[in-house]
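To the team - 2-oxoglutaric acid complex, inputs and output below.
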Amino acid sequence: MNDQQLKQLDEQGYLIFKNMLSSSQIEALLGWLEELWAKEGDSAGEENYIEVGVRRLANLANKGDIFRGIYAHPQILEVIETIIGPDMRASMVNARDVPPNTGVRMSFHMDSDKGRARDATGYSAATAIWMLDPFTVENGATAFVPGSHLLGKSPKEVLSDLNASHPDEIIIEGQSGDVLVFNGHGWHAGRPNLTNGHRRAILVHYLRADVPRPENRRQHVEPENQTELTPLERELLGLDDKLS
Ligand SMILES: O=C(O)CCC(=O)C(=O)O
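Output:
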């Protein structure tokens, strides 16, 4: 990252990286996600949680080597490390689709577990959203409040209506293959899709390793899917962690 990116991350709490995936990578990812959605049906996403009105998939680290280049992408990890430090875990590797003409505006929230504020060690959460369809105002691009990670408060503590748009929010538009990376203490919300196309993305949620991760915030990778993993990938997935 250059000085300008570091400053923006520090002050605004987010960065956008353009063209991180080729069109053939996007096609392969979308093709595989659609197969998983068809196979998993109504239970898709349940390892983490079901979100009414959208399609989700969870625990993707167990569902194909294709996702290793996403959750362990070196350029994105550099940003995550800048936010939460080197001891990080991918707590969720999910896909999220806001289907055509559907979805509700999410409540504003932070991704730091249960709204934890920055503590003596620093920030504890960071998130990467890999856009697989273009993100537009109309199709449900993410709303983000720049600088909100600095407030040390959760939206619940401050906002009277968590579902209303915020006067300072920006809508993060981008092309498929772009990646939004943000400080997980930043306030953000998914938005409805008012178009006839899908709004699909892969969301990787990272937590500092010392933050307790409940069962549904861990990757569960079958032994046969672990054979190719690098030491860094194992560490990110917390596969050798002692479970508390
Ligand atoms: O998909 C989005 O735009 C944001 C989703 C989000 O914030 C979440 O799933 O927690």
